[in-house]
Automatic annotation (TrEMBL), chain A:
Coiled coil: none annotated. This is (2Fe-2S)-binding protein. The keyword Iron-sulfur applies. It comes from Desulfosporosinus nitroreducens. Transmembrane segments: none annotated. Keywords: 2Fe-2S, Iron, Iron-sulfur, Metal-binding, Oxidoreductase. It comes from the Bacteria. Residues 3-79 form the 2Fe-2S ferredoxin-type domain.
Length: 161, 798
């Protein structure tokens, strides 16, 4: 039996008909149509499906859609700033060459945002620790860490949200 | 970098000339677009989550395909019953192997794979049937309803056992001894050379079974037009052309009725360097049901069908004269092929070619065999054929340096090849800065001051390496150019590069835009790149063998000659000067002598197109085709055409490790790398490739290994049990691009995508030896192995 629920994604309410066992990643990608969130493993191991739920990074491939009602969900599409400007973390990823194939990127950027929200002046170790759940097979991580460090500078200076 | 100071009061050097004494890659006057670390052109859409990968696509009326997989690693298929599945509401069609029995494989002479198993399964998880259904859940439910009856056969998981028991059971009826292919190459007089050597050492090395771990699973979306018989396939592939060709063979429809398009690709590393059953299944099902069909693997399926790195069982013997010059190498290699041939023969002979560089080897012998086993097939994985022998050879040399009482750096430098070297197998190296790589990495890391002097548990190790920059031959017999590009210029579309090259994340679209802009005298942002489409793009072989920058660069240069000539002639008429006196730079066309005579580039385009219409330049590239011969006897050597390349990239790495003697864990603390990639078209992209390569092989050296149980069942088909490096395993990385310019190459470029994986295994293994005094000959080097070795060592010392 399908059930009609409301999901608050990127400050917009989506009404979706779902099964109780539907996973959040599938609902976001297939029903809502926001395909920026990626499914790299479906087992909670790679971090590609990371979204923010009430500001906290969560793996949407092991989360039920039904359990995400009434919460604020942010996906990669929700980061774009006014006038289509890139979010400083997104800009930093581009400028620092932290993107190659880009499949890990949405999840990686959301984990980066969450860590900077918590700690706008992180040490390298803190960044590494917080990003350790996101696998990137292309970059060797070096430029990703540099991008987060660069974003952190803008962050603390301008108090980005 | 110091700028050249011009002595003369007036700067009379015409613009565009290469100033003597300035490396051309750093000569700002010569290059404006090449050599710049510009951000990738696909960066913004990727960070916004707007890049469309195959799995993100939906077409009207699209349905879903799923594959039923074998639960035996080796068995006869007695019966497949699909009746119940077909009756399930929502199921549109079922497919079995008999419906598409034509064999496919990237090397046509050895092609022996079918879309779904025919008559027999040869590895656990092999596809036996497929379903198309209205939604994924129904497709999955239908798979459960398909009944397959098997008659199990003995399962052979080890190549030696497979050869031994081949009388009793054959994996492929036509492959005697379960050997896919065996070969021998002999150059010079190896035995005589060994007899005269002062130092001789022989060791055995065994490598592991890692896989690529690209983050985007194989995905395919096919749409067959039942009215006109046209098939359109969107696929996550590195090789649109070879896929296109094989699709034509399997579906028995001409290539001109098939179009392959690559959406954004989420990494490949060789794992998408062969066609995949997902692609065939999507196409066959779409033809059957007359609707678009999408097939996306889950991670487990990626593991089951992966074409990872060949485990190699190698015996290597090297002989040095009293001064430490290499006189002979004898290399015996048994490769674990897994179930199907794929890239097999190529990989076998690539391992053979690896003994000829980056050191001078006057006498060499190779004996090798690639042996079928009941495992997922092995195939192309970053640094194909190179990583395993490089590990063995560099570790062996480390040990031999110790035998001689000299530094491994001294030994390697002494034997390192230089520009213009011809190997005994006729491989020609037009240009090499390998020595500079060794020097840079050693100096910057302080290797000589540290090696042998660090406290117990800490160590440092070094290694060199090289890789090809594209191949000399196609995988099927043909002498057509390996790349063709078309550049279209007009007032509407601006500049568009059309080439079927595959952007798989490595950044080729950005690099190609930079090269086009350089040649046309415009900015890289002005260039649109249409790649990865067999119908829109001109011909390209694909992204493998680190070939693209070189091949596309050469083709682009050729195409731009045509365009520039037309524009110069147009401008010459307008300016009243000779066309050959014109220079095109920074969106302007001007006389190199009367610099006031100039018009804007756009104006010239406008005038040209208003007379002639769209301006098009075509260019192509064919590599030099050297033959694999023994250069002393002149005799052809079997398989020795493999390994030749227009030019070669070189690199060196120094690894510093800490070994926790309590837990056996190895921590890589710092990696200092120096690479010769010729001109770095985009230095930031080069660094990204190198850093990615280092992490990739740190993972394969220390953690990654696919495990199967005795029945051949995959034990770690997920990222939880198959561990890849995370940020926590990341060492400090100091990567350096050495000054290099290959005059024989377009823009002076060479490879960088696979060379940097080569020295990682041996540098790390040598560092571990320096730390704890134990040499490892088996990979991956796990904490258990370290603890056991330390215990054995202690007992030995008592
Ligand atoms: S897709 Fe969710 S963790 Fe990999
Ligand atoms: S950029 Fe490809 S996985 Fe991270």
């Amino acid at each position: 039996m399908k059930k009609l629920i409301e999901l608050d994604i990127n400050d917009r309410i989506y009404e979706v008909a779902i099964d109780a066992r539907d996973l959040l990643i599938d609902v976001i990608r297939n029903k809502v149509g926001l395909t920026g969130s990626k499914k790299g493993c479906g087992d909670g191991d790679c971090g590609a499906c990371t979204v923010l739920i009430d500001g906290k990074p969560e793996l949407s491939c092991i989360k039920l859609a039904i359990a995400s009602q009434g919460k604020k969900i942010t996906t990669i599409e929700g980061l774009v700033q006014e006038g289509g400007q890139l979010h400083p973390i997104q800009q930093a990823y581009v400028d620092h060459g932290a993107v190659q194939c880009g499949f890990c990127t949405p999840g990686m950027i959301l984990s980066s945002k969450a860590l900077l929200d918590r700690n706008p002046d992180p040490t390298e170790h803190y960044i590494k620790h917080e990003l350790s759940g996101n696998i990137c097979r292309c970059t060797g991580y070096k430029r990703i860490i540099e991008a987060v460090e660069a974003a952190a500078k803008v962050w603390s200076k301008e108090g980005v949200q | 970098m110091e700028k050249k100071v011009l002595k003369s009061k007036w700067n009379l050097t015409p613009e565009g000339w290469n100033l003597e004494g300035v490396p051309s890659s750093q000569d700002e006057k010569r290059y404006t677009q090449v050599g710049r670390s510009v951000p990738r052109i696909d960066g913004p859409i990727k960070v916004k989550g707007e890049a469309i990968y195959t799995g993100d696509m939906t077409l009207p009326g699209m349905v879903y395909g799923k594959i039923k997989r074998s639960t035996y690693a080796h068995a006869i298929i007695k019966k497949i019953d699909c009746c119940k599945a077909l009756k399930l509401p929502g199921v549109l069609a079922v497919l079995t192997g008999d419906e598409a029995p034509n064999k496919w494989g990237i090397v046509p002479q050895a092609a022996n794979e079918t879309v779904l198993a025919v008559g027999k399964v040869r590895f656990y998880g092999e596809g036996v049937a497929a379903v198309a259904a209205l939604d994924e859940e129904t497709a999955e439910a239908a798979l459960e309803l398909i009944e397959v009856e098997y008659e199990p056969l003995p399962v052979l998981l080890d190549p030696f056992q497979s050869m031994e028991r081949s009388q009793e059971v054959l994996i492929h009826e036509d492959s005697k001894g379960n050997i896919m292919h065996a070969g021998e190459q002999v150059y010079g007089d190896v035995d005589k050379a060994f007899a005269e050597c002062e130092y001789v050492l022989e060791r055995e090395f065994h490598t592991n079974y890692p896989q690529h771990g690209f983050l985007e699973p194989h995905s395919a979306l096919a749409s067959y037009d039942t009215q006109n018989g046209q098939l359109h396939l969107w696929a996550s592939s590195q090789i649109p052309h070879y896929l296109h060709r094989q699709m034509s063979i399997v579906l028995e429809i001409p290539m001109n009725k098939i179009r392959v398009t690559l959406p954004t690709i989420g990494g490949g590393f060789g794992g998408k360097g062969e066609a995949a059953p997902s692609e065939f299944v999507a196409c066959l099902l779409s033809r059957k049901v007359g609707r678009p069909v999408k097939v996306v693997y889950d991670r487990q399926e990626v593991f089951y069908t992966n074409k990872g790195r060949h485990p190699c069982h190698m015996k290597v013997k090297m002989g040095l004269d009293k001064d430490g010059y290499i006189q002979a190498v004898d290399f015996d290699n048994t490769l674990d092929k897994g179930a199907y041939s794929g890239w097999g023969i190529v990989v076998l002979f690539y391992t053979a070619s690896m003994i000829h560089l980056p050191y001078k080897v006057p006498n060499a012998r190779f004996r090798g065999r690639s042996v079928y086993t009941n495992k997922p097939s092995t195939g192309a994985m970053r640094g194909l054929g190179g990583v395993q022998p490089r590990w063995a050879l560099e570790c062996l040399m480390d040990e031999m340096a110790e035998m001689m009482g000299i530094s491994p750096y001294e030994l390697k430098l002494k034997n390192a090849i230089e520009s213009g070297h011809t190997c005994i197998n006729n491989m020609f190296v037009p240009h090499s800065e390998f020595k500079k790589c060794l020097e840079t990495a050693v100096k910057k890391s302080g290797f000589l001051e540290k090696q042998g002097k660090l406290p117990f548990g800490k160590g440092i190790g070094m290694a060199g390496g090289y890789y090809i920059t594209g191949t000399a031959y196609t995988l099927y017999q043909n002498y057509k150019p390996h790349t063709t590009v078309m550049i279209r210029v007009d007032t509407e579309g601006g500049v568009t590069l059309l080439c079927a090259a595959a952007e798989i994340g490595q950044g080729c679209n950005t690099v190609m835009a930079q090269m086009v802009a350089e040649e046309l005298g415009i900015q890289y942002e002005d260039v649109h790149v249409q790649s990865g489409d067999t119908e829109i793009g001109a011909f390209d072989l694909g992204s493998f063998a680190s070939r693209l920058t070189y091949a596309a660069g050469a083709a682009i240069k050729m195409a731009c000659v045509e365009i520039n000539q037309s524009l110069k002639e147009t401008a010459a008429g307008m300016l009243g000067v000779r066309a050959d006196q014109l220079v095109i730079k920074n969106h302007e066309i001007y006389s190199m002598y009367e610099i006031k005579k100039r018009i804007s580039w756009e104006k010239a385009i406008e005038v040209y197109t208003s007379i002639n219409g769209t301006l098009v330049g075509m260019g192509n590239f064919s590599p030099p085709r050297r033959k694999g011969i023994d250069i002393i006897s002149g005799n052809r050597v079997q398989g020795a055409n493999i390994g030749h390349s227009p030019t070669f990239g070189f690199s060196s790495q120094v690894h510093e490790v800490e070994v926790d003697v309590e837990t056996g864990r190895i921590y890589v603390k710092k990696v200092t790398e120096a690479g010769d990639c010729g001109t770095p078209v985009n230095p930031m992209c080069v660094d990204g490739q190198v850093e990615g390569s280092i992490m990739f092989n740190i993972g394969a050296c220390l953690y990654e290994d696919q495990k199967l149980d005795a029945s051949g069942k995959h034990l770690n088909p997920n990222f939880h049990d198959y561990k890849t490096p995370t940020t926590m395993e990341m060492p400090e990385m100091d990567t350096n691009i050495v000054e290099s310019y290959d005059h024989s190459a377009p823009f002076g470029v060479k490879e960088t995508g696979e060379g940097a994986v080569q020295p990682t295994f041996p540098a790390l293994t040598n560092a571990i030896y320096d730390a704890i005094g134990v040499r490892f000959y088996t990979l991956p080097i796990t904490p258990e192995m370290v603890l056991k070795a330390l215990k054995d060592k202690k007992e030995g010392e008592l």
